[in-house]
């Protein structure tokens, strides 16, 4: 990816998007090359192991797999899976793996789902002077003791809010996500950058990226 960008550099105003997400690797004997099949006690742990059975409701069944945190880099029409780590807490460390030559002098937008809507993650992104656009639970508490869900009836998209535990304001928006059997689910998304909110199709963070 770095070689392609060096040969055909996108315009400097094109943002770099860092996508952070949870994924589950199915265990069907397909990842032997990622393990360390040895009896050597000094050998590192296998990169892929079975630890628990994770419910995969989004896929209509149960996924037998290892839950991982994955990052993907997108710049213009180029995209690549960049890094994978074991636990959600390591998502912050994935940010440090983004190449400086890609982020230098460029807007960096870190998009992540609800699992990463923590105070620590948002602060880490902001500390790098990047922009975070992250999904947020509807019951997330604000400093005035209200929850985000209460904004649906008494607030407006694009307003600034202060979440509990944060001293900097966040821009909030919401949208209805279409589920199976015609059902809808109210979803919230926040941004560390004051984007203008727009009612968008149910594509998560795009509710603020207009």
Descriptive overview:
- With 210 residues, the protein is of the alpha+beta class.
- 13% of the residues lie in helices and 33% in strands.
- It has five helices and nine strands, in the order αββββααβαβαβββ.
- Strands 1, 2, 3, 4, 5, 6, 7, 8 and 9 form a nine-stranded mixed β-sheet that branches.
- The chain is globular.
- Mean pLDDT is 76; it is low at 29-33, 47-64 and 199-210.
Record the SSE blueprint:
Blueprint: H1 2-7, E1 16-26, E2 52-56, E3 61-75, E4 78-85, H2 91-95, H3 100-103, E5 108-112, H4 119-127, E6 131-136, H5 151-154, E7 160-161, E8 170-178, E9 184-191
List keywords for this structure.
nine-stranded mixed β-sheet, 5 helices, 33% strand, globular, disordered C terminus
Shape: globular
Number of H/I helices: 5
Helix content: 10-25%
- Average pLDDT taken over every residue: 76
Radius of gyration: 19 Å
Spans of at least 5 consecutive residues with low confidence: 29-33, 47-64, 199-210
Gap from first CA to last CA: 27 Å
Task: Give a concise summary.
The chain is α+β, with helices and mostly antiparallel strands and about 210 residues long. Helices cover about 15% and strands about 35% of the residues.
């Amino acid at each position: 990816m770095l070689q392609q960008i060096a040969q055909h550099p996108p315009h400097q105003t094109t943002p770099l998007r860092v996508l952070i997400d949870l994924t589950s690797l199915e265990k069907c004997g397909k990842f032997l090359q990622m393990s360390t099949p040895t009896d050597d006690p000094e050998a590192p742990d296998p990169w892929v192991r079975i630890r628990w059975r994770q419910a995969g409701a989004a896929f209509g069944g149960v996924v037998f797999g290892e839950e991982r945190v994955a990052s993907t880099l997108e710049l213009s029409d180029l995209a690549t899976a960049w890094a994978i780590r074991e636990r959600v807490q390591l998502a912050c460390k994935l940010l440090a793996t983004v190449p400086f030559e890609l982020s230098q002098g460029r807007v960096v937008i870190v998009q992540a789902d609800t699992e990463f809507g923590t105070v620590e993650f948002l602060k880490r992104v902001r500390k790098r002077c990047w922009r975070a656009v992250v999904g947020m639970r509807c019951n997330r508490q604000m400093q005035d003791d209200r929850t985000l869900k209460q904004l649906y009836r008494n607030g407006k998209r694009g307003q600034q809010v202060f979440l509990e535990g944060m001293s900097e304001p966040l821009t909030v928006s919401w949208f209805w996500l279409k589920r199976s059997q015609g059902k809808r689910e109210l979803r919230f998304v926040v941004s560390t950058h004051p984007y203008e909110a727009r009612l968008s199709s149910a594509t998560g963070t795009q509710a603020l990226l207009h």
